[in-house]
Amino acid sequence: MNTAARGILLRKRKLSDTSLxxxxxxxxxxxxxxxxxxxxxxxSPFRGQLDLFFEAELSIAKSRRSNLxxxxxxxxxxxxxxxxxxxxxxQAAAYFVExxxxxxxxxxxxxxxxxxxxxxxxxxxxxxxDLRAIAYFETELARITGVQGAKPSPAIALGHLxxxxxxSRPALLKSLARDKDE
Length: 182
Known about the structure:
Elements: E1 2-14, E2 20-26, E3 30-36, E4 55-61, E5 68-78, H1 87-103, H2 111-126, H3 131-145, H4 154-162, H5 169-181
Parallel strand pairs: 3-5
Antiparallel strand pairs: 1-2, 1-4, 2-3, 4-5
């Protein structure tokens, strides 16, 4: 059964000499894992289509036996190119991805999380991150997951609810605080 979805590429890792496992945050399927058969071949139709943080239209053959589906086709909609031009932008985007992975069940359909990530990447594509942007993302994710208004902060509430926060958070906050002071 083929399914179409819009997704943002979160992670990719080697499966074999020619294939990749690609993780997506999608608008209609939630967080999913796909196999891109032949993606590492020089003449692959996936060549140049599978990079971190790319937003794309996907065609997926859903597996009946596992949560590892087959990626059939990818059409890049927005590569968010400016995220890759600055270390802090990349660091903030990676933190957002990690936080969503911590706070979201695999294949749990939550379109608001996809839209939040899409807006966050759009922001990072146009602006340098700051502490306010990180706090906004955490607050919105807390609202979506049902812990809004929690004390002392949305991030701590998310950490309590899901058992942890990404280990990259302290380094990101320190880097952004240092930028603010300069």
